[in-house]
Design goal:
The protein is of the alpha/beta class and 293 residues long. 34% of the residues lie in helices and 16% in strands. The structure holds glutamic acid (GLU).
Length: 293
């Protein structure tokens, strides 16, 4: 099977070091497998988006020598595909409307495990949740090793269509990864604990599950994930080499001796070392339980 990987930024701000690490990790891995690398713009959350951020991210990626092999897919154009998947889940009885608020769920640690606490209110749009049965999901992450999550206990019935009518990330990502024929997902470890939800949706929708490689997360000085919303400092696209070298080093890769972007990247591809990536991942804290089995 031909390898197909992707990088899926949300246009909530400029590319910072943390997202550069995910871009470089996914790009190098795809190239080292002679595969395709596709950019998907996850513009599915207008309240969090920053005008101009999508174009800015694509320009920055280009300055760092990474361009999508196929036209960039914008999730904002994909509502019909998400609606079809949602309708299938609904027809099969896997989803239910829910009027519970955050406050309602507070006594349960924010987790919706059983029936709704709030009563139905036809005057207000509900969120739609996927019903999660007792399901222990196991997977082998190529970076972080064997993982296990008890979906009902740790996540509960989760939202796949929001009160404001937008489809949730968890549903959209599963539909797009399948439609784009993605064979391996390489992304930050902040999404390690979303993976079981996505695998569960793949099972229910009869979609293939790709392989997963989660990458260690770049943290700020206080130990928090760098994020665009927190205005983490954007990478400087006029000087790509220092940030590229730092990203490779962060991923445990040896930093090639090259003085131009194309040369550095192509050497990084031929030297790509998954075991070295695993070593930095195993030293990093992991968000869900490593599987003891
Ligand atoms: N859009 C997500 C982010 O920017 C990434 C989603 C994914 O790779 O599955 O963090």
């Amino acid at each position: 099977m031909t390898y197909r990987g992707r990088f899926a930024p949300s246009p909530t701000g400029q590319l910072h070091f943390g997202s550069l690490v995910a871009a470089v990790g996914s790009w190098i891995r795809a190239r080292s497998q002679n595969g395709a690398w596709i950019v998907r713009m996850e513009d599915l959350d207008p309240p969090r988006e920053v005008p101009g951020a999508a174009a800015d991210i694509l320009e920055t990626l280009a300055a760092f020598g990474m361009e999508s092999d196929e036209p960039v897919l914008y999730q904002s154009t994909r509502t019909a595909a998400y609606a079809t998947a949602f309708a299938r889940l609904r027809e099969a009885g896997h989803v239910f409307p829910c009027w519970c608020s955050r406050v309602d769920l507070e006594p349960f640690g924010g987790i919706h495990r059983d029936a709704c606490i709030a009563t139905a209110d036809p005057a207000r749009a509900p969120a739609w949740r996927l019903r999660v049965a007792d399901a222990t999901i196991r997977f082998h992450d190529l970076g972080f090793g064997p993982q296990v999550q008890d979906l009902r206990e740790s996540v509960g019935n989760f939202v796949i269509r929001r009160v404001d009518g937008w489809y949730a990330y968890q549903l959209a990502v599963v539909v797009d990864d399948a439609d784009q024929g993605i064979t391996e997902v390489v992304r930050g470890a902040d999404l390690l604990d979303s993976t079981p939800r996505q695998m569960h949706l793949q099972n229910l929708l009869g979609l293939p599950t790709p392989d997963f490689v989660h990458l260690p997360l770049a943290l700020d000085a206080s130990g928090r994930k760098l994020s665009k919303q927190d205005h983490a400092r954007p990478v400087d696209r006029s000087k790509p080499l220092p940030a590229l070298r730092a990203a490779l080093q962060f991923l445990g890769q040896c930093v090639p001796d090259a003085n131009d972007v194309a040369g550095l990247l192509s050497k990084a591809v031929s030297d790509f070392d998954l075991a070295a990536l695993r070593a930095v991942s195993s030293a990093a804290k992991c968000k869900i339980d490593p599987d003891p089995a």
